[in-house]
Specification:
The chain is mostly helical and about 160 residues long. It is about 40% helix and about 5% strand. The chain folds into two domains: about 80 residues, no CATH class; about 50 residues, no CATH class.
Length: about 160
């Protein structure tokens, strides 16, 4: 019962129930998997809500006053199930774009000025698909994923 679809959260502050998830890129445990046990005992209705979200493969939005246990619950879930935990603190000035990714326009402009991204007409004509040209590939190196973007990439 170690498949992702069968993992269930018990919420009793127990030891890890499942093996931590392995990063397929380097065949090691994800670096964001908590290694320290979180002594948190979840109420039954909250553990059921977590398991419903796991079963439906949908996010679980936690809200509440500061100090009510939202972060401790997240650590408890991540530890018990062996999932990586992406921490992200939201403020009134936070923007959704920053949570997903940031794009380094300044570095790209610098690279263009230095001639690193110059593309000749021959290069454009040689590629069958203009969207997969070298310029499109180069743009990826200027994208830095935010915590939400990293989480989405992990779940894909």
């Amino acid at each position: 019962m170690n498949t992702l679809s069968q993992r269930q959260y018990h919420g009793q502050g127990e030891d890890r129930q499942y093996e931590p998830l392995i990063d397929p890129d380097n065949n090691q445990i994800f670096k964001d998997v908590p290694i320290k046990k979180e002594p948190y005992i979840a109420p039954k209705h909250l553990a059921e809500a977590v398991n419903d979200a796991l079963y439906l493969r949908r996010p679980l939005l936690l809200e509440g006053e500061p100090g009510c246990g939202k972060t401790r619950l997240a650590y408890s879930i991540a530890y018990e199930l062996g999932y990586p935990l992406k921490e992200c603190y939201i403020r009134s000035t936070s923007r959704a774009e920053d949570l997903l990714y940031t794009y380094d326009n300044i570095q790209r402009l610098y690279d263009i000025q230095e001639g690193k991204l110059i593309k000749t007409k021959q290069e454009e004509q040689q590629t069958d698909n203009p969207e997969k040209s070298t310029n499109a590939i180069d743009r990826k190196k200027y994208v830095e994923l935010g915590k939400l973007g990293e989480a989405i990439q992990l779940s894909a």
